[in-house]
Specification:
The structure is a homohexamer of 255-residue chains. By secondary structure, the first copy, chain A, is an alpha/beta fold. Chain A has one domain: 3-Layer(aba) Sandwich (Rossmann fold), CATH 3.40.50. Chain A contains eight helices and five strands, in the order αβαβααβαβααβα. The longest helix of chain A is centred in the C-terminal third of the chain and has 19 residues. Chains D and E meet through α4, α5, β4 and β5 of D and α4, α5, β4 and β5 of E. β4 of chain D pairs antiparallel with β5 of chain E.
Chain lengths: 255, 255, 255, 255, 255, 255
């Protein structure tokens, strides 16, 4: 059994790999959320799963867990908003508690380090809270565990961003459905991207606050917050390679 | 876009398919749980996803949602117990609340009927409670919605069971990792089943009660509650065909 | 003080009996739920209380706690449904948490083994979850405790079932308000059963799934899921004797 | 069927009595809590059940529901404290949520007025919160319901208190296990009171604050907060008659 | 830095003061609640903050934490009711959990004793529950901590009450917006009291039970439950001096 | 009564101001958190309270509510971390629920628009979730309400930032205890800032991920994430004026 995916193993394989606590478990956490007219609803799941697999295959102590498919509510200024058809999200405390229990289960197997690989901007605070509460509970029982929380776009450095966005970079929040995600998806599986449907548009512009209930008029009609037109599979390959290499430099050995 | 999978659609496709409330959304709910030495840990996810796809392809008003991968805690008498390496489960109220929010999100899109297709015996009570609370909340607001709760094994009739188990059938609870699941998995993807590792054994025998914390000595060492040795891809095909045909007879039209 | 009921003791008696951890506390858990035209609404409370008393009187290390009167929501296929007048049920997590606290309180007194004696089919999953979470919490603190979970009908063996149901046995779920419960109630207190009101009917027949909100048309008009007509006090005596003897064989000594 | 107890009815009886919303349901809420060396642990259940029955029998639109047996944690200054053997209590939010669901179930039957008859001092705030949240939820749906919250000792007027306590009355909190409760229990069922074990003592005296964890040294060794020695069945009859008459004057008709 | 207020310190000051566990932290807990026509909405915050400061300045091991501004729902018989404009309250479990976390944070700093100084009658049960659960959690981990729960009016003795209320004292519950609170506020800051707007009235009179939803007709139109007319700054000074002296006698040294 | 502070009003004033729904309520939400050696622990409370007052005084339909003093857990990369002495924070769901209830209370008074003015970076996701859930609940009941969520630093435009940080701006997260907050505090109340204790340092530098439990070694020893040395009261005045003017342009009229 050479798969890096936990789901492919039987329990005896899994035990052999994990019993001594030498493995770190990567849990991809995504969302089912609109990403414009050209990307599938599970874009935020596909990308972290792909990166997790690539990362695990570059090392010898990482296993990839089944993903958390449904994530926290899409917000207007980073995902277009929770009112889009197909955007299918859960509330914050529900995501936090579900992930808490999943992580706890992996720690009970004897694993001591987990990596949450986040593919959906809005998840971050709730993943952090789940990780904080869980590691605190273990600390109180005198068991040392660690949870790392990664959002993949944080592994792209300034130089690459300048190269990818020669006309200026508007920030990760506006990359929803834009060049970054579209390029990566083109690289991973061109067939899942319908570039002919991609809508060109100016980057979204928002007032310096949020309003609830969210106002659909604030969001570009296409659902993307910046234009995906400049995306390409080549850029996607560059991003993925860069991102994985950077992750390997941080997580390629057991600390 | 002819895929039956929600995850393959973009939000415009999804809206076109669902806007008039004509579609029913099938949500497969599984578990990551040991199934003996020969089956992968995601057996309870793979099977309902496969059946949901088959069911959707036989009809014109069913779409398949991304699965809930992590389910309720494995119990000794139906899944071997939550202490097995690789068995990775969440608590009951956490599953209930996660599923509640996911279902609620699909109803907000304008869908009016959902089908929970359960692949893990222990999930049932918590799925029922989520469905009951959610439909009650919609009723209080005067919105008529319906949630159907199916466990796939309930769609096999007596005649088929007698044919599959000529020496007598010990009940669905003991089919954990046995002929039923193994045959279906052989049919779906032979490569994921390692029959050469399958352990033959008598059906598990339990006292007429449960104990907590669960006692590992109650469970056969292999983790299966009955022997998978008699499983075959042919039986799997028979089961799947029978099961899907029976589901179609119930859910092939909109009621 | 020779009563086996905790509620009859004062705290000094109770301390004398329990201080050394030698006693096991039986907690009857029932429901207030319709059982047809002929049985009182607290049938599911009366029966486990009676059996708990009988079991405690046969041993010297069992005490009977006050019952949990209100249980989990009646389901259509096992209790007729939560919409019947007089069916008065609580949600699953609420029952789980209430029972969790009650059990925790008995453990704090120094007791180390508890027996949940369930009288209501639908309670089972939530009692299991309460027991699992509680014993896990004690394990984490290094305190060894045990909770046994019993549904009384599981203590009747095949031979007795064949004797009681010579024309075939349709399963415990359909015994709601049928021969089993009616006979036991006739045995415990004939005056509480109004056999002249009992409604004869075929066993209920359900599709292989559930729907929410529940559909009252699925349920026999009487509320029972099988006919109570063949019930008798003699059968009740047989059932109770058999059940208690079997429980004593398992719980008559401290393990 | 002339019983005032819901638990004695079958669902058809219950429906006939309650269908038009003419009945009010009294729910006794007690506790399992030490009451000195001479009173049983369920004193706080027995008393409100007795008063509820008496009240219902004096009117024609009151039914008595099965009691809530386990109440909120005993506090040092009103019940001796939660550390006594036999004191078996649940946390506040758990009691609140359990009672919320029970009340909600009675309202779903079509009843529109509920009476919580409290027998345990410490329950009061949590019963109030459950009633407040529940009636608010119904108000939001435009359904007018009412919940009355009664602690029985509040129905004794100044004159009676002076008569019962000629040497001065120290307040209801110190009546835990004292003349009030002991007299009532002697009146209800003399056999359940062991006056020969009753411990004479000065009323308890506390500092003007509470401390957590509670300090057992603050509590009289007997567990009662005032002496029960002056109790008698005659006083109990007087109290019960007075209390019931006062309740009837308030709840004897439908408002 | 000689301030007794935590909020005035920087973290280095705070660490120097608290590192050895020698300090007790006083947390004032109030409410935003109507107090008649003459007192500001934050009366229940101002008073415990003032008393906490005075207490801390009389000792050398007490620090005053920032207050909890929003408290539990005003009740008709002690605060006029939650329906008054300006009365801005939270539910019981929410207050309990918020305070739980705040107290836990102070204990994590190394402090071992906390004092909850309550200024709002209705808070008491929920503060007690928070303190009970928190100290229990620390006990289970073997860490000895203490939480004291004080309502300031409990530090006034009988003699002072007789002096303040020569015509008889109706109980603390009716002191809402009356002589007690008004006098203290006049003493603390005369400018915040508008005595010319104070409404004279008889003490409120209530039936011996509560009803939910609360009935505004039960409450005096002014919102106070007794008349504030006899209030004076002199009485306020007397009350505060007396109260602080009594608190110092109990909490002026570390026990 | 000309105060803009809710807490200064009596309920009759408050009703007169708010009865017609013409007022918007600003709720400052802060934190008790270390801000280096030179700033007090309540910096994140003082600043939004000051800005709320200034904003309210510039308009005629804004009132300032009492602040939420205790906020969400300080994170290493934006606040130094929750392990600093004096940093006193609550968990995410607890903050969310407390704020939910507070906002709900203000809406019950008849107010229809609320403004959450956030002073603590880490609060944002939990405030958004509270606002989303609350406005959703009102929408379901057909009541139109709005909650605006503002973090004050978002009201400073690029030009001002360039002016304030001539050597480059490292992002708001690193402004914890730096020039921004220190300057504002100097402007508000110079006496509360101890510039002589301010520690000069390079901006903090973090890896592209988080770890739990947080690692204190990641944080500059002083607790600030950038140097406050360049702060001045003049810059503070500029920031406050700019920020308030920008807020007024957005919230100076009722939309």
């Amino acid at each position: 059994m050479n798969s890096v995916f936990v789901e492919d193993m039987d329990w005896v394989n899994y035990r052999e790999r994990t019993y001594d606590g030498s493995q770190r478990i990567i849990i991809p956490v995504g969302a089912i959320e609109q990403h414009g007219h050209h990307l599938p609803l599970n874009t935020d799941v596909v990308i972290p799963c792909h990166l997790a697999k690539a990362l695990a295959e570059e090392t010898d102590n990482l296993l990839v867990a089944p993903a958390i498919n449904y994530g926290y509510k899409s917000q207007v200024q980073s995902g277009g908003g929770n009112f889009f058809p197909g955007t299918t999200c859960v509330s914050g405390s529900v995501l936090e508690n579900y992930l808490y229990d999943v992580m706890d289960a992996y720690l009970r197997h004897g694993n001591r380090e987990l990596i949450l690989l986040n593919g959906h901007f809005e998840n971050a605070a709730f993943l952090a809270e789940a990780a904080d509460r869980l590691t605190e509970a273990y600390s109180q029982r005198g068991v040392r565990v660690r949870v790392y929380l990664l959002s993949y776009w944080d592994f792209l450095d300034e130089a690459l961003i300048s190269e990818l966005f020669p006309d200026g970079f508007a920030g990760w929040q506006l990359e929803h459905g834009g060049v970054l995600e579209t390029s990566i998806m083109l690289h991973i599986d061109t067939a899942r991207v319908k570039m002919q449907r991609a809508v060109d548009s100016e980057p979204a512009s928002f007032p310096p606050y949020n309003v609830f209930p969210p106002d659909p008029d604030w969001v570009p009609a296409s659902g993307t917050l910046s234009s995906p037109i400049a995306a390409s599979a080549e850029k996607g390959a560059l991003i993925v390679d860069h991102c994985v290499a950077n992750m390997v430099s941080h997580f390629g050995y057991f600390r």
